[in-house]
C-alpha cells in the first residue's frame, strides 16, 4: 500500500512539472515579444511602432523672415515668394514643398507665413497662424534680423531669443503635438559681408539700412569695425546653439546641423541687387539642405 502511494506521488509530481514547463514556455514567448496566435492557431505579426519622424510629410507651412519670402531675389527691395526655398513654385529653386509634395501638391498644401523684417519675437504669432492649417511639417528660418540691428547693443539678447523660440514651439505643440519641425540655422553673416563688399552697387544698397550691425561702414577695417563684426558673428553662433538646444528637447524637431551657417555662399548665391540675401540659386541651395535634412532616415 505504501509502495502504491509513493508511485501515485511520483506521477502527480511529474504531471505538475509538465504543466509548469508548458506554462513557462508560453510566458517566455510573451515576454520575448513573440507574435500572438489567433483563434485558428496561426500567428499574426505584432504591430510595429510608428516612427517618430515621417520623411514624407503631406503638407508644409513656413515661418521666418525675409529669406523665406525670397526678398531681393527677383527685384530690388521686393519680396518674391515664388522663389522661396520653403514653399516657392519656381522650377529654378525646386523648393522643399515641391520636392516633398510635387508641384500640384505644393500648390494646395503649402503656406508661407514668413515676413520680411521679422525677428524671433514674431515667430510665436506666425506659428499660431500656421497652426490653423494643421501642417504635417513646419519649416523655420529665423534669427538673422535679431543680429541685423542698427547697432550691436540693439541685438536681441540670447536668453530673449531662447524664450521666443521656446514660445513658438510651445504654440505649435499645444495645438499639434505630432507636427514635425525643420529648423534652419542662421546664415554666416560675416561670410555674406565678405562676399557682398566686392560689389559697389551692393554697398550702396546696404546704406539703405540692410543689416547695419554687420554691413555698416563695409570697407572699414579699423579695430572698432573688426570687433563689431566679430561681436555680431558670435551672437549668430550663440543663436544657432539655442536653436540646436531647444530643438533637441523636442522629439519631432530637426535642425540642419549647422549646414546653412556653414554653407559658403558665393556671389552666384547672393542677390544681384543687395549682395546679401540669397539669389534664386542661393534659395535652391537652401531648399536642397532642407530636403536632405527632412528626408534623412531617423527614429
TrEMBL record:
Alphabetical UniProt keywords: Hydrolase, Signal
KW Signal (keyword) present: yes
Gene Ontology MF terms in the entry: hydrolase activity
CDD domains: SGNH_hydrolase_like_1 (cd01832)
Domain of life the protein comes from: Bacteria
UniProt-listed InterPro entries: GDSL (IPR001087), PLB1 (IPR038885), SGNH_hydro_sf (IPR036514)
The protein's name in its UniProt record: SGNH/GDSL hydrolase family protein
Amino acid at each position: 500500500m505504501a509502495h502504491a502511494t509513493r508511485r501515485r506521488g511520483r506521477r502527480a509530481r511529474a504531471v505538475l512539472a509538465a504543466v509548469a514547463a508548458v506554462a513557462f514556455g508560453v510566458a517566455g514567448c510573451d515576454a520575448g515579444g513573440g507574435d500572438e496566435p489567433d483563434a485558428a492557431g496561426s500567428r499574426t505579426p505584432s504591430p510595429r511602432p510608428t516612427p517618430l519622424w515621417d520623411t514624407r510629410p503631406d503638407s508644409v507651412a513656413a515661418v521666418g523672415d525675409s529669406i523665406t519670402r525670397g526678398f531681393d531675389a527677383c527685384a530690388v527691395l521686393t519680396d518674391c515668394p515664388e522663389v522661396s526655398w520653403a514653399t516657392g513654385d519656381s522650377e529654378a529653386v525646386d523648393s522643399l514643398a515641391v520636392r516633398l509634395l510635387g508641384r500640384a501638391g505644393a500648390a494646395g498644401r503649402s503656406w508661407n507665413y514668413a515676413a520680411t523684417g521679422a525677428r524671433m519675437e514674431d515667430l510665436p504669432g506666425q506659428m499660431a497662424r500656421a497652426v490653423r492649417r494643421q501642417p504635417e511639417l513646419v519649416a523655420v528660418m529665423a534669427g538673422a534680423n535679431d543680429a541685423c540691428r542698427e547697432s550691436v547693443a540693439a541685438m536681441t539678447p540670447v536668453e530673449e531669443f531662447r524664450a521666443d523660440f521656446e514660445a513658438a514651439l510651445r504654440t505649435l505643440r499645444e495645438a499639434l503635438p505630432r507636427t514635425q519641425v525643420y529648423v534652419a540655422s542662421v546664415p554666416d553673416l560675416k561670410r555674406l559681408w565678405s562676399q557682398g563688399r566686392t560689389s559697389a552697387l551692393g554697398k550702396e544698397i546696404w546704406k539703405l539700412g540692410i543689416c547695419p550691425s554687420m554691413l555698416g561702414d563695409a570697407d572699414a577695417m579699423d579695430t572698432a569695425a573688426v570687433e563689431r563684426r566679430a561681436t555680431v558673428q558670435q551672437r549668430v553662433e550663440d543663436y544657432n546653439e539655442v536653436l540646436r538646444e531647444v530643438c533637441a528637447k523636442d522629439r519631432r524637431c530637426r535642425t540642419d546641423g549647422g549646414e546653412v551657417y556653414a554653407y559658403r555662399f558665393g556671389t552666384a548665391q547672393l542677390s544681384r541687387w543687395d549682395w546679401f540675401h540669397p539669389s534664386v540659386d542661393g534659395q535652391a541651395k537652401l531648399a536642397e539642405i532642407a530636403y536632405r535634412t527632412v528626408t534623412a532616415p531617423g527614429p
